[in-house]
Amino acid sequence: MKPAEQIEQQDRELLRYRDKVYTCGIDLTLAVVGGKWKASILWHLAQRTMRFSELQRQFTETTRKMLTQQLRELEADGLVHREVYPEVPPKVEYSLTVKGRSLFPILQQMCDWGHHYLDDGCRPPANEPVEAS
Question: Counting Cβ atoms within 10 Å, is residue 117 exposed (0-12), middle (13-18) or buried (19+)?
């Protein structure tokens, strides 16, 4: 491959998201759903539509501000839908969009992996090499 063709190939593989360039889909995915609470929020919303107060009860270790921020980012990324009802007091419900639902198989695999990880005795000793499969 000629150098100019290599550059063109590399440019096609660049992934741009929020003014940042990624060369790996995994890194981009983690930028979207990574963080301490996002994957868990998506997991809970995959089970059912929830009001903010219900989500807050699920995430007692986070602040209202942090939960709101995470939900807004997920909404901005098109993964979560926020429905505001014209009531007093205001009623707000959160649910997954079609794009958000597309993450469910990945979240399920992560959940299963976590259970297997614990069942297998967690991790090898720090000095034990891990063989590639």
Answer: exposed
Query: To 10 degrees, the CA torsion angle through 9, 30, 70, 100?
Result: 80
Question: pLDDT, tens digit, for every residue of 2-20?
Answer: 544 444 444 557 888 888 8
Longest dimension (CA), the chain: 66
pLDDT score recorded for residue 26: 87
Find the helix packing angle between 104-119 and 38-47, rounded to 10°. Answer: 110
Confidence (pLDDT) at 65: 95
Please indicate whether residue 5 or residue 96 has the higher confidence score (pLDDT). Answer: 96
3-class DSSP assignment, residue 21: strand
Q: Residue 75: count other Cβ atoms within 10 Å of its Cβ.
A: 15
Angle subtended at Cα 113 by Cα 68 and Cα 128, rounded to the nearest 5 degrees: 115
Whether residue 89 is preceded by a cis peptide bond, meaning omega within 30 degrees of 0, is yes
Nearest to 78 by CA among 44, 33, 14: 33
